[in-house]
Amino acid sequence: MRWFRTWNVGLMRHNLMRMLAMGQTFLLLSVLSVIFFLLLGVGGIAEKQLNTSPVSSMKGLASSLSSRFFISMVGMELPHMVPEKEMSSFSGKQMTNFVVQLLTDVNPSDPKSLVAREVPGLGADSPILLRTGSGNKTVQAPEDYRPGVGADGSSPDHPEPDHGQEPDAEPVQPSAPEADGKGEDEPPIQPGHKNIVMVYHSHPQESFNPVLGIDSTNPSSSKEMMNVGLVGDALAKALERKGVATLHAYENYAATVQNYSYNYSYKYSRQTVKEAMSQNGQLQYFIDIHRDSQRHDKTTTTIDGVSYAQVYFIIGHGNENWRKNEAFASSIHERLEKSYPGISRGIWGKTSSQGNGEYNQSLSPQSVLIEIGGIDNTREELERTAGVLAGIIADIYWEGQEAEKAGSLTKGQPPQKDGQKQVASKHPAG
Known about the structure:
Pfam families: SpoIIP (PF07454)
Structural class: alpha/beta
Region (Disordered): 125-192, 404-430
Protein name: Stage II sporulation protein P
Strand content: 5-15%
Distance between the termini: 125 Å
Strand order of the largest sheet: 1-8-7-9-4-2-3
Number of helices: 12
Shape: elongated
CATH architecture of the domain at 197-409: 3-Layer(aba) Sandwich
Order of helices and strands: HHHHHEEHHEHHEEEEHEEHH
InterPro entries: Spore_II_P
Radius of gyration: 30 Å
């Protein structure tokens, strides 16, 4: 008996077509996945090479956490990281603030951030947090205001911007203040005839209410010792007492520059810095001193019963080598955190859409803008902080000198063999 088998050609064809379709889909998805990851890798490389803003990086997220908060997070998995006597940083308020800011980019402690994206210009001064400071637990960004008429009646010659050709700053001849050795037991040690540090002011009319004896949201003055010039003077003199030759260049650009425009403030100060660099070949550090526009409770800290003006470090992302400037600012910031916790309010970056974006920092990797205090800080608080900064900057300089000297000695002396050392020890000099 013969057996007959019936083949359903239509069904076989249908199954074959379905398998081919699945294969095509799998192949298409594989190719698309490869292309996606290739583009992702290329994008990452391009971002690292071209983009100067870390706002979307993990660094930007991690830096927005305080040290205690970060330790508490790690302590959830590693209990020994959190001391038994120390209370957890995970309060309801802190957790709520962190989650809301992470998801919406709105800081509940700063109501302005709620509408900053909707109101044109309101969020233009929002910097990017690079490194948090122990003196800024609420992660409050620095605030800037444009200058108005000064308390002493001073005002820019031409407050409105000149829409024509940019005005040129006249050459300036900055002069260093005399070293003030009062209160010191020993005379300052002079490293040489050339200046090492340059202290200057791009916004020299920024002032302080207690100094002027007024109550204003934007105090300003054209008198050097009645504005940020007094802070620069205190910093320069303190550095001189530490043995670091310092040039304090104070220029009232509104009075000396023809067709002055506030919009070109950093153009004028850049000319001042370049002029100083041409005359002082050993200048290494460039400190642009400003003040913040926030009130006393947000710009002051108390250490051992003594009040200090707090500081912001500002880095311009318009400078393609801004990471080098950030490294210099970090060296100061980290020492502040160790010796005077609470003074630093962190390191913040600004792009060209949030300000000048460069701040003359392309002229030197050891150039930084420091906002010292706010509109309500007293002269004593400002001078105390200036003294602290001077000590740290002087330490950085002298440690660098010692390392350079040690390196040159090591390089200049050829290594001795063990036999030579033994012979030398048997025949001492003299």
